[in-house]
């Protein structure tokens, strides 16, 4: 079974590492731009797919059930192109798609795979549309075209609309754009087509947070940053500028052998931290705590903290680049004081210049271990891991 995972652009290798290390039966796990693809051994039990959905660095999972190159698709006029896409429906492995969906969702669609196979056979033989019944699942088709969109004479909407129409004809599924049981995604790049079924209904990065702030980070981003710091059991990990607490909360859930503490100098941010901690702790207690503090004067002894993971004010929604030029060197000075020798500092910022110049000012104190250019809500940001020398 071929799985396609959408991940944060820039953190593809982090996601590939998590998938290969946590899921059994994974073969050929490869990072691409914004996604990771891998194969699950053929007879993977449905438990494996449920484990796939527990990955913390992945936004969405899909199972690929059709992949092809249609020569000349880009040159075809609109009507012919969408008709060609429509006609491919019978070459797709709908049995695999439905089996995967059922395993991931822990429920069956009416009639299961037997009905799907029978409906496809009938349609191919008679050309008569399947009936829509009250048991028919609802679905939507999304089409995403990558690369040069002017390479096609049809729009993504045209392709999704026509293909969705054909699914309705063959299987009698009900179209619904907002509330749907099944989501089918077509990804078209020039002449290449990938058709996939979504395994999760709601994006997996939507977890932990109930009180959103102006710069709340996705849980998948928080997880990726923390895993770059490589937390060890028993380590003390702090986020000195934690906003609504998204990094410490994700850390305490994902790395329960380490200790997470967050803080912020804004009272409202602290209120959001406690609201998020309360709502995230509904199923099981999450051991982390939050404090009102100034990240330039932290209540920790010298050489006492193992790891700092933080998302700096970028100077976009919060603060300004002028502020950052003064603030970043002060932060690094204080964080150098509290970190143990060999302690790790992972930071994210859009203001690459200010952070580069702050590191350069104290270059003998820090070793750069790795850097990542990451897409944060459309902004190209730098995530950097330093170690205190
Ligand atoms: C980019 S936001 C962090 C967002 C956070 N990761 C989240 O998901 O909510 C940066 C935070 O730094 C805080 N901050 C700015 N200057 C600070 C300082 N001197 N001490 C502590 N926090 C500070 C701001 O209040 C803001 O909440």
TrEMBL record:
Keywords: Methyltransferase, RNA-binding, Transferase, tRNA processing. It holds the Pfam family UPF0020. InterPro entries: RlmKL-like_Mtase, SAM-dependent_MTases_sf, THUMP_dom. CDD domains: AdoMet_MTases, THUMP_AdoMetMT. The keyword Oxidoreductase does not apply. The keyword DNA-binding does not apply. Its main location: cytoplasm. Residues 79-199 form the THUMP domain. SMART domains: THUMP. GO terms for biological process: tRNA methylation. One of its GO terms (molecular function) is tRNA (guanine) methyltransferase activity. It is found in: Cytoplasm. GO terms for cellular component: cytoplasm; tRNA methyltransferase complex. It comes from the Eukaryota. PANTHER family: THUMP DOMAIN-CONTAINING, TRNA (GUANINE(6)-N2)-METHYLTRANSFERASE THUMP3. This is THUMP domain-containing protein. It comes from Caenorhabditis angaria.
